[in-house]
Design brief:
The complex is a heterodimer of chains A (548) and B (149). Chain A has 548 residues and is α+β, with helices and mostly antiparallel strands. Chain A has 15 helices and 15 strands. Chain A has helices spanning 2-6, 10-16, 46-63, 67-75, 97-104, 122-146, 159-183, 188-191, 214-222, 227-230, 322-348, 420-431, 458-473, 486-494, 506-509, and strands at residues 82-88, 106-110, 194-197, 201-207, 236-242, 246-250, 284-287, 292-293, 303-310, 361-368, 372-380, 396-400, 404-405, 409-411, 414-416. In chain A, strands 2, 3, 6, 9, 10, 11, 12 and 13 form an 8-stranded mixed beta sheet that branches. Chain A has a 5-stranded mixed beta sheet with strand order 7-1-5-4-8. In chain A, α11 (322-348) links the parallel β9 (303-310) and β10 (361-368). The longest helix of chain A is centred in the middle third of the chain and has 27 residues, at 322-348. Chain A starts with a helix and ends in a 39-residue tail after the last helix. Chain B is an alpha+beta fold. In chain B, the strands form 2 sheets. In chain B, strands 1-2-6-3 form a 4-stranded antiparallel beta sheet, covered by helices on one side. A two-stranded antiparallel ribbon of chain B has the order 4-5. The longest helix of chain B has 21 residues, at 116-136. Classes of the chains: A alpha+beta (548), B alpha+beta (149). At the A-B interface, α14 of A face loops of B. Chain B: Belongs to the universal ribosomal protein uL23 family. Chain B: Component of the mitochondrial ribosome large subunit (39S) which comprises a 16S rRNA and about 50 distinct proteins. Chain B: GO terms for molecular function: structural constituent of ribosome.
Chain lengths: 548, 149
């Protein structure tokens, strides 16, 4: 090393010197064992190699220390983002249940009352309901008749739906205020919980066991893959987007509704839905996968208790869908929102779509328009549903009620027929206390470094922080996206009429610009004036992309 | 009523009397695997979603839940002799969703292929002829096959 510092040619010189006094290494005595030991036999077919490669990637992501780096690692293979199937909270096509169930691996159980774990809080809820009843009636009357709010609507969504959601948002805010005020001195977890208004809920995962898009199939055939290989399944990236009206979260997770071992029950198995999502009315979009449960990593209150969602989109559904499908649409909305929120929370605990949960997470979802209320309890048991994990026995469970009326009518400034049972159920959701778990909550995160903020190195920390936030923002690229123009498709790709021209475009060079890796770019240039003195040869800034 | 341009009335027979409607729908086989309650159609470019729904409901009594449409780009083809590029007409494609209790399977319009028994028989026949040919030319290996009476 000393010589190296003197001049950089020394290591090369060292190679030229012959090693005259060197001799063969002496054999170790215990080289032989009683039983012959062989290295493991590996599948050396291309399929086997690819499978090992995927396993290595998953293992690498698992070994990353911080939450943010894991999220960047999920997005590493695509510079322009994944072509995600977009699942939004407020658009449910006809007969959506089979697809939503397969994509979230959820067994749905219709119930009339809350599950057994809520029995303990029953008597307390009764007293609370009697205390808050008049306040709730007042707030419903005032929000419906006493106040005229100016609601601004956007043009790209149904105006009526937006108005109903805005109305529901106001009522939910009031109801939440009344219940939390009443409960804050009765139960300890309410005071320590945080309330979010219109938070940003996003979740990203991969779904296996689905047909490959024709684009992929024909692309592979064009490259000369045999037909069977071209039909090899691919994971479909899925992105959920939703904005609840209001959420409550705490630093402790809720108790599981059913025991964790129960989730492997074959009764909960959901039917496979392999048809292309496009064929039933879902769209796909290029974007970086984001997992955001309404707060940034490192927040203290990282487990959800309750989320309220609007049901305005039901007004935008055509009449021909029928009431039965409308009910299913509500269930679908509940499954999507609950799964999406819990998945994002699980990601902040260090699990990803590649590294499955080791314990269950629970959330409570309320879908309401200010009068009609439906309650859902969702237990997340598994988040791994990619192609290599298709025989995963675990399933998620969602229990939900039908929509019920909170009150009958409002007459002469009075609420008629306030439904105590419905209000009681809502109070019971608030009374369901989160609990400290005995197991390790973050097994896949580092001991010292769990978030980027814990990293000591200033450069690395700030670089990772800004890269993470930039990816999660999904801001459009500064430069135009690569595009094959129609004239090129006609005169260059489909019909080779311009064979004499120089081949410079990606399709002529046989590359696909959309399969570019995230780190496949030149890092920012350091101008000479800014380089550390004296004579630094480093021209480009360091990047800290996770190695996966 | 039709907006087609028909030839101007001329005296004499035969006369063009059939007035064809603007609206037509053609059932097509889906390219990819579909849900059993989704049916694909090609239809005339002027038809809207509502027209498609009414067409199926009023004329054929088919219950329609939802209609999605798109306009598919026509294929580009090369003119064989002159070599310039031509384009086929665009088509409007309608994806019609039936109630989930309904199932539709695209019918097999063309008759089935000949049975494998016939194929085997034909193959056997060919083999026999070829063997006969070999037998005939056994003694004249250097002579081309066309050189015979």
């Amino acid at each position: 090393m000393q010589l190296l510092k003197v001049h950089r040619t020394f290591p090369k010189l060292k190679q030229l010197i012959t090693r005259r006094y060197a001799q063969a290494l002496q054999r170790e005595q215990d080289e032989y064992t009683d039983q012959p030991i062989y290295p493991p036999i590996l599948d050396m077919t291309s399929k086997g190699k690819k499978k090992r490669e995927r396993e290595r990637t998953r293992e690498n992501i698992k070994n990353i220390n911080t939450v943010e780096e894991k999220q960047i690692a999920l997005n590493m293979p695509r510079y322009y983002g994944w072509e995600c199937v977009m699942l939004t909270e407020d658009s449910v096509p006809y007969n959506a249940m089979p697809m939503v169930q397969h994509y979230t691996r959820t067994h749905f159980k219709p119930v009339d009352s809350l599950p057994d774990v809520y029995q303990d809080s029953s008597s307390m809820a009764d007293t609370v309901v009697q205390e808050i009843k008049s306040a709730i009636e007042d707030c419903i009357v005032i929000e419906n008749e006493g106040i005229q709010r100016k609601i601004t609507t956007v043009l790209n969504k149904n105006a009526e739906a937006q108005r109903e959601n805005a109305q529901a948002r106001n009522i939910v805010k009031q109801i939440n205020r009344i219940i939390t005020n009443n409960l804050s001195d009765k139960v300890s977890h309410i005071l320590s919980s945080q309330v979010d208004y219109d938070p940003r809920h996003e979740a990203f995962w991969f779904v296996g066991g689905v047909d490959i898009p024709p684009k992929v199939f024909f692309g592979r055939r064009k490259k000369g893959w045999p037909k069977e290989a071209a039909l090899e399944p691919v994971n479909r990236p899925v992105q959920y987007l939703g904005i609840p009206l209001l959420t409550l979260r705490n630093h402790l997770p809720l108790k599981p509704v059913i025991p964790y071992s129960e989730c492997e029950n074959p009764e909960f198995k959901v039917a496979q839905f392999s048809t292309l999502p496009k064929s039933v009315g879902y769209s796909a979009d290029f974007r970086h996968g984001t997992n955001i449960p309404g707060f940034w990593p490192g927040d203290f209150d990282e487990f959800g208790l309750i989320s309220y969602h609007g049901r305005g989109h039901m007004l935008a559904r055509p009449e021909s869908f029928g009431t039965e499908d409308n009910l299913e649409a509500l269930h679908c909305q509940a499954m999507k929102t609950s799964f999406g929120w819990l998945l994002a929370q699980a990601n902040y605990q260090g699990f990803t779509t590649y590294n499955d949960l080791t314990y269950p997470l629970v959330t409570q979802t309320v879908i309401t328009n200010g009068n009609l209320i439906s309650f859902y309890v969702y237990q997340l048991n598994t988040i791994s549903m990619h192609n290599d994990d298709l025989d995963n026995p675990k399933h998620n469970i969602c229990m939900g009620t039908k929509p019920m009326n909170l009150y009958d009518t409002i007459e002469n400034g009075k609420v008629k027929g306030l439904n105590d049972d419905v209000l009681k159920m809502l109070v019971q959701f608030y009374l369901n206390a989160p609990e400290e778990r005995e197991h390790d909550m973050k097994p896949y995160l580092g001991k010292e470094e769990q978030f980027v903020a814990d990293i000591e190195d200033d450069n690395k920390r700030s670089w990772l922080e800004s890269t993470y936030k930039h990816l999660m923002s999904n801001r459009p690229k500064h430069k135009l996206l690569p595009e094959t123009y129609l004239w090129e498709r006609i005169y260059k790709i489909e019909h080779n009429t311009r064979f004499f021209e120089a081949k410079r475009r990606p399709f002529e060079l046989g590359t696909n610009p959309f399969i570019r890796r995230l780190d496949d770019h030149l890092p920012p240039y350091i101008p000479k004036a800014l380089r550390p003195y004296p004579r630094c040869r480093k021209k480009f800034e360091t990047t800290y992309y996770p190695k996966v | 009523m039709s907006t087609r341009w028909y030839p101007i009335y001329q005296k004499g027979n035969p006369q063009l009397r059939v007035f064809l409607p603007n609206f037509w729908m053609k059932l097509v086989r889906p390219y990819e695997k579909q849900q059993p309650n989704i049916v694909h159609f090609h239809c005339s470019m002027e038809m809207t979603k509502y027209d498609i729904k009414n067409y199926l409901e009023k004329i054929y009594n088919v219950p329609v839940v939802d209609v999605r449409t798109k306009i598919a780009l026509g294929k580009f083809k090369k003119e064989i002799v002159k070599g310039y590029i031509t384009k086929d007409e665009d088509v409007k494609v309608a994806y019609v969703t039936l109630p989930k209790t309904h199932k539709f399977e695209f019918p097999n319009i063309f008759e089935e292929k000949k049975s494998s028994e016939d194929d085997a028989k034909a193959l056997e026949e060919t083999k026999k002829t070829f063997k006969k040919f070999l037998e005939k030319n056994k003694d004249r290996t250097d002579v081309p096959s066309w050189f015979s009476i």
